[in-house]
Amino acid sequence: MTKRERIYASIRRQPLDALPWQFDLTGRLIERLQVYYGTTEVHAAIGDHLVWGAAVVPQGGEVSQDGVGPGQYRDEFGAVWQRDAPDRNVGDWGELVASPIAAPSLAGYHFPDASQYGRWRTVPDVRKRYPDHFLAVAGIGLFENGWALCGFENYLTYLGGEPKFIEALNEGLTDYSCQLTRQLKGMGVDGIRFGDDWAMQCSLMLRADTWRRLFKPYYRRIYAEAKAAGLVVMIHSCGQVTELLPDLIELGVEVVHPLQPEAMDVAHCQREFGRDLTFWGGIGSQSTIPRGTADDNRREARLRLRQFAAGGYILAPSGAAPTETPVENIAAIVEVAKAQLG
């Protein structure tokens, strides 16, 4: 089977010769793995089954950068980010330094027009270079873009006291997200992952009934647009999101990332929701991967492969494997993954 076929077979609970695997890694860890494996192509050495069709974030001539400071850029929504010295120990996300909406009102604010940007212009080339891999892209969600537009603390305040504003904000973000998703038709993309961190380690950041009232109707539109484009619908949310899994199943989500053993009960998730959801993750990126031995990582990887032997699983760290991870621990998980193939 090809890597692409394995992921589809796992999602669809079809017979397969091995469960698929994929590794998110910090930039610093990748540098050390390049030395360990003796190649700059670390993800090829690992045997990752999934490749990303990177979005070209609008900036430069496409979005006015007037008035931004050194190392900063303004995104298509008008939020300004600092990214001159990304901390490659944890990720390259940057820091929000200015938000375009200063009060709970959309008066004077205009959502971007997706037709102005070539966000997916590199995706066809990725498909040509990796015909046997599962090709995924990152979609536009609601929660994270909402707080970037308003500032995090203000946004949480609006969730509690300005529901009509949140609904109007979600309406505009949903329209933009759906416009972008429609553009993916015919590009050979397999799946789209919508990233919105709704949770902390032990609970959701907002009440589940608030999520269902203010967000669920808009996610229904977003996910339906992706399904209409022939895409596997995937979501990312760190933390304890078990309470929302039945809602995600109802909305047509097929893959949940990450399965985080430090926050979620893996056996419970597999038993209660494994018929309907494919879980992506499962190896503790806060625990076993950075702090365990190579043997600990082998044991956890083998346990996950046994738990999900019937499919519905992508073996992976439960988030980017952190910089302090011993390279031998990554190699141990890869060894177990590849051993499935004999």
Structure explained in plain terms:
The protein has helices at 3-12, 27-37, 42-46, 123-129, 143-150, 152-161, 163-182, 208-214, 216-228, 245-250, 266-273, 288-291, 294-307, 327-339; strands at residues 50-52, 72-74, 80-82, 95-98, 134-139, 191-195, 232-236, 255-259, 278-283, 313-317. It is an alpha/beta fold and 342 residues long. It has 14 helices and ten strands. The protein is globular, with a radius of gyration of 20 Å. The mean pLDDT is 94. Helix 7 (163-182) runs parallel beside helix 9 (216-228). It has a single domain, classed as TIM Barrel (Alpha-Beta Barrel), CATH 3.20.20.
How is the CATH topology named? TIM Barrel
What share of residues are in beta strands? 5-15%
Characterize the overall form. Answer: globular
pLDDT averaged residue by residue: 94
How many structurally independent domains? 1
List the strand order in the largest sheet: 1-5-6-7-8-9-10
How many beta strands in the DSSP annotation? 10
Q: Tell me about the biggest sheet? A: 7 strands, parallel
Note poorly predicted spans.
none
CATH architecture: Alpha-Beta Barrel
Distance between the termini: 13 Å
Number of helices: 14
The CATH class is: Alpha Beta
- Secondary-structure-based class equals alpha/beta
